[in-house]
Amino acid sequence: PWSFMAFGIPGTGKTAFMRALACALNEGGLAYGLAFIKSQALTSRHSVEEVRERLSELDDFISQLREPTLIVFDELDALAPSRRESPALLRLSMWAMDFLDLDAPQLQGCIVAGITNNPAQVEPAVRSRLFSTVYFELPGKDEIAAIIDDQKLPSSGEIANLLWRDGCRPT
Fold first, then answer.
1. What pLDDT, in 10s, does the model give residues 85-114?
2. Pairwise CA distance, residues 110 & 73, whole Å
3. Which helix (DSSP H) or strand (DSSP E) does residue 20 occupy?
4. N- to C-terminal Cα distance for the chain?
5. 166 to each of 30, 111, 155, 162, how far by Cα in Å?
6. Do 77 and 121 form a contact (C-beta atoms < 8 A)?
7. Is the whole-model pTM more than 0.85?
8. 3-class DSSP state of 99
9. How far apart are CA 79 and CA 92, in angstroms?
10. 26: phi then psi, degrees, rounded to nearest 5
11. What's the gap between Cα 25 and its chain centre?
12. How many other C-beta atoms can be found within 10 angstroms of the C-beta atom of residue 121?
């Protein structure tokens, strides 16, 4: 599989990019599914046994994929924490390393992506299995203007006029 990690501070559009990538793959004539996995939901507030069960269920789900799929692990650092930071969570990192085995037949034709705010918290052995790393930075003034224009969002002046017209008065 082709794989990469997207990282940057919160609010830089990493998650939105993944959804847009899935749409672009389909618009380009490819039939890609999207599996968006919230890593934190797999691991938080669960016993070790529950986490193993959830990982086993995830393995089963992925082995049943019948079409190329963009598999996105949001909060990759929760699924593959650095052994230096969290030695007790070694099992998670080992699962992630096994999952990213490049010869895994269930991943043929898939794209695997991980999202994190802090790549230093992701197990280095997992990071090394990813083909590429993409840094997302905060957009500048011009980029923000382009985003607003592309989204056909009303300007702040237009919003204020609408609120004023509908009886909302600034305080």
1. 665 566 677 777 777 765 666 677 788 899
2. 13
3. helix 14-27
4. 55
5. 46, 47, 17, 6
6. yes
7. no
8. helix
9. 6
10. -70, -40
11. 16
12. 18
